[in-house]
Amino acid sequence: MEKGSSSTAFSFISKGWREVRDSADADLQLMKDRANSFKNLAATFDREIENLIQSAAPTFSVPAIRQSSEIDFMKKLQPKISEFRRVYSAPEISRKVMEKWGPRAKLGIDLSRIRSAIVAELDETDEEDMYGIMEFNKFRKSRSLGFKEEGSFGDWEPIRAFKTRLREFEKKKNSVEIFGGFKNSEFVEKVKSSLKAICKEPQESKEVPPLDVPELLAYLVRQSGPFLDQLGVRRDVCNKIVESLCSKRKNQLVLRSLAEGEPPTVDSDKINDELDLRIASVLQSTGHCYEGGFWTDFTKHDVSDGKRHVAIVTTASLPWMTGTAVNPLFRAAYLAKSEKQNVTLLVPWLCRSDQELVYPSSLTFSSPEEQENYMRNWVEERTGFKADFKISFYPGKFSKERRSIIPAGDTSQFISSKDADICILEEPEHLNWYHHGKRWTDKFNHVVGIVHTNYLEYIKREKNGALQAFLVKHINNWVSRAYCHKVLRLSAATQDLPKSVICNVHGVNPKFLKIGEKVAEERELGQQAFSKGAYFLGKMVWAKGYRELIDLLAKNKNDLEGFKLDVYGNGEDANEVQSTAKRLNLNLNFMKGRDHADDSLHRYKVFINPSVSDVLCTATAEALAMGKFVICADHPSNEFFRSFPNCLTYKTCEDFVAKVKEALTKEPQPLTPEQMYNLSWEAATQRFVEYSELDRVLNNEHDPAKVRPNGNIIAKSFSMSNLSEMLDGGLAFAHYCLTGNEFLRLCTGAIPGTRDYNKQHCKDLHLLPPQVENPIYGW
Fold first, then answer.
1. Residues with Cβ < 8 Å from 478, sequence gap 6 or more?
2. Distance between CA 268 and CA 258 in Å, rounded?
3. Burial of 345 (0-12, 13-18, 19+ CB in 10 A)
4. Which residue, 726, 720, 710, 725, is CA-closest to 286?
5. DSSP code for 543
6. Do 306 and 352 form a contact (C-beta atoms < 8 A)?
7. Of 267, 411, 551, 672, which is most buried with the most CB atoms under 10 A?
8. Angle of helix 268-285 relative to helix 235-245, nearest 10 degrees?
9. Residue 51 pLDDT > 90, yes or no?
10. Cα-based distances in Å from 640 to 14, 25, 179
11. What's residue 730's pLDDT?
12. Where would I find the Glycosyl transferase family domain in this sequence (predicted)?
């Protein structure tokens, strides 16, 4: 029984030992498999490095710039490889790897005590069983020799191989041959494209959010500007409403400005542009394309010969020496001088009866050709060159009450359709008060209006002037908006019209600049250039500064004792002006009007112009060009002249007296070349081309596309319907209907019979009756 129990126990122990041995064999096999896997991984990495070096061998020549850039790329890659080798070759990494994949330090099981107990218990044991125990003991010893206890061990074979490979690559990477021949552009480009793909920012979503209610209201208010302006709502009020509705957009613009390092200021123009882009982007995302409205006419002039045509339409002509007759003539000459475009000057033709009322010295013309020759000789004598431009005539009638010429019939018909490209309306409000014909902006590609006269100032001086000025103000807004693309105001003294900017686009007769040069030469030689005192020159009507002049001299008679002023001028109020001066016992010497360039005026040193009704006094500019002192009121009409040192402005009566005494006791400063150029017609023409956007039109450039902050471009031209354009067309249509009624025309002050030209006009201009189509002018 005792022997059977011992055999049973030994069998149980032998069975347990076999299970332990099988488990240990399985663990050893798993470790070998993992070690081989890591060794294969290291070999694969080593092969990839070798392939990288071998693939960098040059197969063709690469430009030096490409080669240097690729070498820089590999140099940047070297520290990364060195860092990888340094980290993964450290003993700590090997220890951690072996702790995870290697057998534990005390994996072998010590069965010596069990064996001693069994041997002591059993005197005799089967040789087979003892052989098994001895084999197990050998296995335990072999396991103890293979690994050190407590987890410390030497470098494992795969780790040693990996370290060796990295050391070899570290030696090779410093060689110039590797990176000097690294010219495989295809490989480098793939690497670069991969890096760009990793670092690429997410693209902006193409979905455009819909418009919110404040944006819709802001756009409606801004596009309703013309209508609100007619109701008396000022433009700045509309801008404030739009700005308040677009407060969210304004905050975004401020943040963008701060991000770009710009001052955090956002003006109304930038807000309007952002609002336009917002509307356009929404409409563009829907595929909408605006093709014109109910009032829009796209049958305009098509430039086929490669040369543009400019038509200048004005309200007066020589020999009437008024600004609207002289300045458009100079403008036509200097625009034609460049020979970049064909130019036509369209001026009014008056019947003989009206010529006798308007033209000085009883000068009349029997035919348009005769008057055209007079105009050409006059401008060529003053400019010194022969300008190639066309002069045409349209029927006109002189209004004694308004002291101006009113067009008769449709003035736009006197520019043929083939020449209807660019139009310049000198005094657009005047030309269109009673215009009953084709809309200028429909016939021409680009229409520019130039405001010459401050009509509101003149009308306020008449009976019921306040009421008339109120009506004329809104009529001027009406016709300027309906018939012009752009309006230029010579100074801030004019009415603030829609689509308008302020810019002096007038120059002086070159003859006056030559006089100024002559005066400067005389002064350099020590000669006396000015031998006379002060003078005033202008049409003798109360509104041209005569009332202000008499008031100033009457109030300061004692302070200006002994001061004498020569006055040159003709006009309807001549007798009344002279009688008033005589009654007040003013020391004024009245003489007939004459050309400002007349030799008798060269020796005057001081020109006095107290007028506040002018928009931009031509005589003031001429006096400055001749090197004289100019004394004028501190008024917006004289803003352009303040930059000249010889311009003395005054605000009060006492200031006027001080300026007069200063001018009489001192000598004016000679003009610099820059100042003389600013007064010239060359500079004026350059300013006109810039501010009227004529340079863009002449160069066949379309409206500038708006660029969004992300670089996307959205053109506004026909991407959206424009409420402003629709309203302008409606205003033009309403104006056409009203001016077609003779009763309404007469109620508003029109000359009877001016809706169409009369028989005398047909005879003088060789026209057909207005009821018959005239093929010459393309009616």
1. 230, 731, 735
2. 18
3. buried
4. 720
5. G
6. no
7. 411
8. 60
9. no
10. 120, 106, 69
11. 86
12. 534-668
Q: Do residues 139 and 24 lie in contact, with contact meaning Cβ atoms separated by under 8 Å?
A: yes
726 class by beta-carbon count within 10 Å (0-12 exposed, 13-18 middle, 19+ buried) = middle
Q: Are 764 and 368 in contact (CB under 8 A)?
A: yes
In degrees to the nearest 10, what's the CA dihedral of 418, 424, 425, 426? -140
Which region among 43-52, 358-367, 529-538 has the lowest average model confidence (pLDDT)? 43-52
Q: Which residues pair with 348 in a beta bridge?
A: 394
Q: Residue 289, SS3?
A: coil
Distances in Å between the Cα of 214 and the Cα atoms of 205, 225, 242, 249, 350 are 23, 17, 9, 10, 55
Q: Which two tokens stand for residue 666?
A: 């001192």
User: Which strands sit side by side in the sheet containing 486-489, from one edge to the other?
Assistant: 404-407, 390-399, 341-349, 308-313, 422-426, 446-451, 486-489, 500-502
What is d(CA 489, CA 452) in angstroms, rounded to the nearest whole number?
Answer: 7
Token readout for 254 is 């401020």
22/480 Cα distance (integer angstroms): 106
Answer left, alpha or beta for residue 738, where phi above 0 means left and psi between -120 and 50 means alpha.
Answer: alpha
Question: Cα separation of 198 and 209, whole Å?
Answer: 29
Answer for the pair 162, 88: CB distance below 8 angstroms, yes or no: yes
> pLDDT for 121-152, tens place per residue?
444 444 444 444 454 454 444 444 444 443 44
Instruction: For residue 262, count other CB atoms closer than 10 A to its CB.
Output: 10
CA distance 485 to 479: 11
What pLDDT digit, counting tens, does each position of 709-738 carry? 444 444 444 444 456 777 788 888 999 999
| Dihedral, 429, 435, 441, 442 alpha carbons, nearest 10 | 170
Alpha carbon distances (Å) from 163 to 80, 97, 156:
16, 14, 11
**Residue 258 burial (CB < 10 Å; 0-12/13-18/19+)?**
exposed
Residue 61, token pair as written in the block: 């020549």
697: which 2 tokens? 């039109």
What lies within 8 Å, CB to CB, of 380 at 6+ separation is 386, 387
Residue 33 has pLDDT above 90, yes or no: no
Q: Token pair 């026209």 is at which residue?
A: 767
CA end-to-end span of the chain? 143
CA distances from 164 to 88, 157, 341, 522 (A): 12, 11, 82, 98
Pick the closest to residue 611 from 541, 676, 674 (CA basis).
Answer: 541
List, in order, residues 6 or more apart from 657 with CB less than 8 Å away.
556, 559, 560
Tokens of 624: 């400055």
Average pLDDT of span 14-18: 66
Does residue 187 sit in helix, strand or coil?
helix
The Cβ of residue 559 has, within 10 Å, a number of other Cβ atoms equal to 14
Residue 505: Cβ within 10 Å count: 24
Tell which phi-psi region holds residue 445, choosing left (phi > 0), alpha (psi between -120 and 50) or beta: alpha
Do the bridges between strand 713-714 and strand 706-707 make them parallel or antiparallel, or are there none, so unpaired? antiparallel
